[in-house]
Amino acid sequence: MDTLNGSTDWTQAAALGAVRAYLTGLQDTICAAVEAVDGGRFRRDAWQRAEGGGGESRILSEGAAFERAGIGFSHVHGAALPASATQQRSGIDGAPFQAMGVSLVFHPRNPYAPTTHANLRFLIAMPQDAPAVWWFGGGFDLTPYYPFEEDVVHWHRVAREACAPFGEDVYPRYKAWCDRYFFLPHRNETRGVGGLFFDDLTEGGFDRCFALLRSVGDRFLPAYLPILGRRKDLPYGEREREFQLYRRGRYVEFNLIYDRGTLFGLQSRGRTESILMSLPPRVRWEYDWRATAGSAEAKLDEFLRPRDYLAELG
């Protein structure tokens, strides 16, 4: 029997099937919720990878609420695990592998509505003459341009609720990990107000890790939709729009320089259009731009560093 790390409870095939069923179901659920809010429809684009596997990218463009919303599922396999997936582990470089995940990035039209990202993934490496090695990763984070304290507190309260069944220390650890991961060292600022991030997760065995993944995934919509509902119809002008486009440049910088998911997709020869669907449709860079002291744009600086929002604002 092809067991998962020696467990008789899960075979590799059963584990992959269960995770795939959850992730594809989550993709469907989130797409339906976004379509209900926006009124537009996702374009569905199934694709195959020459080296093995494939997926489906779904894109909503120029909607009422979203300038672009992308959510993709992929399940790929190959003969050599890319280097970007082996940073925390030894002995699996170049091993045959299977990897699957759901990744989304939503760029709202209104500058007062925050961009958001979520990713949930599962990988198995199968080195020669050694047991298979599996792990989970993922999380969600929020990138506002004009931050509202009540939105940030709500976001982190739901994140804490997602972690609560798994121990009191889980939310603080994964919140701090998110702050460290979504950080632009060349700007000395966080990408946004954070959320949750975890990777290389095996602690407690497959059942616990899979349950944690589901808990995070199931709380994405309760975390994001109330914020979107409060902000998507607020009036705004050219000033706010220009600031939104400028700050979106930071999003592009992170995704193209530091994001492990982007690197994994490119190194594993995934579908380029699907890998880069996280990028905003419009963005601008301006040389040495500075916000006016005391302005609404300057307030963002208070949120671009690690903070204990629930203790400070909750």
Which regions are unreliable across 5 or more consecutive residues at pLDDT < 50? none
Overall pLDDT score: 91
The DSSP helix count reads: 9
Structural class category = alpha+beta
Overall, the morphology is: globular
Strand composition percent: 25-35%
Profile the largest sheet: 7 strands, antiparallel
Helix-strand string: EEHEEEEEEHHEEEHHHHHH
Radius of gyration: 19 Å
Question: In order across it, which strands form the biggest sheet?
Answer: 3-4-5-6-7-8-11
Helix content estimate: 25-40%
Strand element count:
11
Could you give the distance between the termini? 51 Å
Q: What's the layout of helices and strands?
A:
Layout lengths: L2 E2 L2 E5 H27 L4 E6 L4 E9 L4 E13 L18 E12 L6 E11 L7 E11 L5 H15 L6 H12 L1 E2 L4 E2 L3 E8 L4 H13 L1 H12 L6 H20 L2 H8 L4 H4 L33 H4 L2
Antiparallel strand pairs: 1-2, 3-4, 4-5, 5-6, 6-7, 7-8, 8-11, 9-10
Describe the structure.
It is a single chain. The chain has 314 residues and is an alpha+beta fold. 37% of the residues lie in helices and 26% in strands. Helix 2 packs across helix 3 and helix 2 runs antiparallel to helix 5.
Keywords:
single chain, 314 residues, alpha+beta, seven-stranded antiparallel β-sheet, 9 helices, 26% strand, globular
Please outline what is shown here.
Helix content is 37%, strand content 26%. The chain has 314 residues and is α+β, with helices and mostly antiparallel strands.
